[in-house]
Specification:
CATH architecture of the largest domain: 3-Layer(aba) Sandwich
Strand order of the largest sheet: 4-3-5-6-7-8-9-13-12-11-10
Largest sheet: 11 strands, mixed
Helix content: 25-40%
CATH topology of the largest domain: Rossmann fold
Strand content: 15-25%
Shape: globular
CATH class of the largest domain: Alpha Beta
Number of helices: 14
Bound molecules: zinc ion
Number of strands: 19
């Protein structure tokens, strides 16, 4: 009783500290996240055409900035003078579409001359098989990203004093020892970091205890982590804490992940889409629509040659002035969605296609196989804890399976029949090698990929 009173007192004190003291403290220490947040939180409520105008103004400013200050785009500053009367979208087309490879090969040329290298920070973004994109960003980006996150959380009912449990994979963010300064920091920030690079049942129990103890109602992190907590709950019958909203990020939110998580936690999962290098591209509202954060990015949907209504997503982000990402082919597929959402937010809509480009398999004739196919193939085979398809070459696939010990004979039969099924359904001369393994190693990013293409076709 005494303990629970103490817990409640501590949590309330921390709430008050976060609500009234933290914003002032942030201003004093030069952190601008609250200022950015108050600037951007009301934008979604603006009328659609006003948001569109704001987006075009930002795009104009950003492109002119890049043409003037970024060596990679120097040749475009003359175009800018000539095209003063040309609208911004026509000017945009002069900028080449860039990829991770372009950035890697032209790194020095892509940094703005307004900054010295010492004034910038170095960032890394994970690739599919552990390859990393290195990029620079200006100091303001971190605070802007925090504000973007706050706005996305607010769509799920969160308010700035509410604590959030953040499930992350990267070691570099997680190595803080639980010292007094760390604890103080997390009470003031309200961010409880949960190292999720590796975990087991015992660690899941610890996470749940922390969530319970600090009365955390909002969770943020990789979908697979929440999915695994849900499976753990199903297996053990453990009581889950009361959660108001779960924000899924960085990893594909597979349909059966979503339903399993929502059933276990009895709350809505909000999908968010962005990457380390381009933050806050889109997020889901309570109506289940993905809204493009068009005050932060300008997206282009480039038709893919598959003939379906599939587009490569190319984004221009307005956030990083140290190293602008302009017409960046992020490696994902998406499509614009007509109309506005009933939630009243003026941001346009899009739909995501499951998977990233580098998860897409290729047949010898160049036909692309979307990863969601493999999700469909595995759906319905009970007793599979984790799976991963890898394409080794045009005629060889490998499937790694982590199985539950009580897998049924029926499921085993379905697994042994997979090769025949894939060959038939995809009309593909391919061999499938199945390996039962104890675990599947995670890449340095900490995100599980269920389909990996090892062909070098980029
Ligand atoms: Zn909406």
């Amino acid at each position: 009783m005494k303990n629970s009173m103490m817990k409640s007192f501590t949590n309330s004190t921390c709430y008050i500290l976060r609500k009234y003291v933290a914003p002032g403290l942030a201003v004093l220490t030069g952190r601008k996240r609250y200022t950015y947040y108050s600037e951007m939180k009301s934008v979604p409520a603006l009328p659609h055409n006003q948001i569109e105008k704001m987006q075009q103004d930002k795009l104009q400013y950003f492109l002119s900035y890049a043409a003037e200050h970024v060596p990679f785009y120097n040749n475009l500053s003359d175009v800018l003078k000539v095209t003063e009367n040309v609208d911004v979208l026509s000017f945009l087309k002069y900028f080449p579409i860039i990829t991770k490879k372009t950035i890697h090969e032209n790194m020095d040329q892509m940094v703005s001359r307004k900054y010295t290298i010492e004034e910038l920070s170095l960032g890394y973004s994970g690739g599919s098989t552990g390859s990393l994109l290195k990029y620079y960003f200006d100091k303001a980006l971190h605070e802007k990203s925090e504000a973007v996150l706050m706005r996305m959380f607010s769509w799920g009912g969160w308010s700035p004093a509410d604590p959030v449990a953040m499930f992350w994979g990267g070691f570099h963010e997680l190595r803080g020892r639980d010292q007094l300064s760390t604890r103080l920091k997390r009470f003031i920030s309200g961010r409880f970091l949960m190292p999720a690079y590796t975990y087991n049942d015992e660690i899941i129990r610890q996470w749940l205890k922390i969530i319970e103890k600090y009365e955390i109602r909002y969770l943020y992190g990789y979908a697979s982590v929440f999915y695994n907590i849900s499976l753990f709950q199903k297996r053990t019958g453990v009581r889950l804490p009361k959660i108001n909203a779960i924000f899924s990020t960085a990893e594909t939110l597979l349909p059966h992940y979503r339903s399993t998580i929502e059933n276990a936690f009895q709350c809505k999962v909000y999908n968010q889409y962005g990457s380390r290098e381009v933050q806050g591209i889109a997020c889901e509202c309570e109506k289940g629509n993905m809204h493009i954060n068009s005050d932060l990015v300008y997206p282009e949907f480039i038709p893919d040659n598959s003939g379906d209504n599939i587009h490569r997503l190319v984004v221009t982000s307005f956030l990083n002035f140290g190293m602008p990402f302009i017409r960046y082919d992020i490696g994902d597929y998406a499509s614009p969605k007509e109309g506005l959402c009933g939630c009243g937010r003026g941001f346009p809509l899009m739909s995501m296609h499951i998977g990233r480009t580098n998860d897409h398999l290729r047949k010898p004739d160049g036909e692309i196989i979307y990863p969601s196919y493999f999700n469909k193939v595995m759906f319905g085979i009970d007793g599979v804890s984790l799976f991963q398809f890898r394409q080794k070459d045009f005629h060889n696939l490998q499937l790694r399976l982590v199985l539950h010990t009580d897998i049924s004979v029926e499921s085993r039969k379905l697994i042994s029949n997979l090769e025949t099924r894939i060959r038939r359904e995809l009309d593909w001369d391919v061999a499938l090698e199945v390996h039962e393994v104890d675990k599947i190693e995670l890449p340095p990013s900490g995100k599980h990929r269920y389909v990996i293409c090892e062909l070098d076709y980029a």
